[in-house]
Amino acid sequence: MKAAVLYGARDLRLEEVPAPIRKDNEVLVRILINGLCGSDIHFFMEGKLGPFVVDKPYIPGHEAVGEVVEGPRFSQGDLVVIEPGIPCGTCEFCRSGRYNLCPDVTFLSAPPINGTFAEYVAIDASMLHRLPEGVSLEAGALVEPLSVGMQACNRANLKPGCSIAIVGSGPIGLITMQVARTFGAVKVCMMDVFDSRLSKAIELGADEVINTRKTSEGEVIASLTHGRGVDVVFDTSGSNKGAASTVALAKRGGVIVLVGWPEVASFPFPMEMVIEKELDVRGVNRYCNTFTPVLSLLSSKAISVEGIISQRFPFDQVVEAFRFAAEHRGEVNKVLIG
Fold this sequence. Notes:
Blueprint: E1 2-8, E2 11-16, E3 26-36, H1 38-46, E4 48-49, E5 52-53, E6 63-70, E7 79-82, E8 85-86, H2 92-95, E9 106-107, E10 120-124, E11 128-130, H3 137-140, H4 143-156, E12 163-167, H5 171-183, E13 187-192, H6 195-203, E14 208-211, H7 217-223, E15 230-235, H8 240-249, E16 250-258, H9 271-276, E17 280-283, H10 291-299, E18 309-313, H11 318-327, E19 334-337
Parallel strand pairs: 12-13, 12-15, 13-14, 15-16, 16-17, 18-19
Antiparallel strand pairs: 1-2, 3-6, 3-10, 3-19, 4-5, 6-7, 7-11, 8-9
Helix pairs in contact: 4-5, 4-10
């Protein structure tokens, strides 16, 4: 079968590899569409992300929708979305329902584990979710990032009538905004350094947008609920500066949710202000128990994600797709491949 194999920084090749042989508990899935995640681009550009390093060839990709070929619990031809983190199922976190915290989780596309930029994958049947009738394949490819947004909103414990700010208006930021609306968020401010992303945020329903490259932090704070700050601040940018800025943006007694993976493991964070304002700072580690509610939102048309898709490439142009996304990071939202 064909697969996109990453050998190291900027060295992605479309080549023939052996097709997977499924185990008894696995389903063989023919991949139809992949979403290109920011982490995929980071691995492509840098050859590493956080503790994960590309030290031998592997297949990236984890935002996928496909068609069942064979396996238990599903019928041939079923359309399925892949939940790419496979937990052990026996540790204290798995037993308590927080399986995203499993220390032995196997996550597709986290080197050296192969991912979904291939014609076929074999995946544990328990990590597949049927695509509801009426939900497009394109939307199915975005269920995984939508689940990140759902997990972020769950961690924030969003309440109807709340105000929020989202630092970073890339795909995860835009998705988090849409999910937050379903939780009842009534005032949404989106922030970024790229005007094109902020224009998309307005198109998708943001109440206010701020280019943080052009506006001082003091002006930003003053514009948010007349200087009071917002109930919840999400950082989806993954930038050290963006994460640190959340403290000033949150109201006293507010909540900060850190979603984006940081540029470095440690960086300055204004802890004195965290204490003085009595802020809750909460991390987001992927997701758990979110795929089913996300699929329900899509099925009921409570959210629509097609507007986030900016480009689509056929699978045989996967290398070109990676290069395009890497070279136009401020201009693209979500790239689909397949």
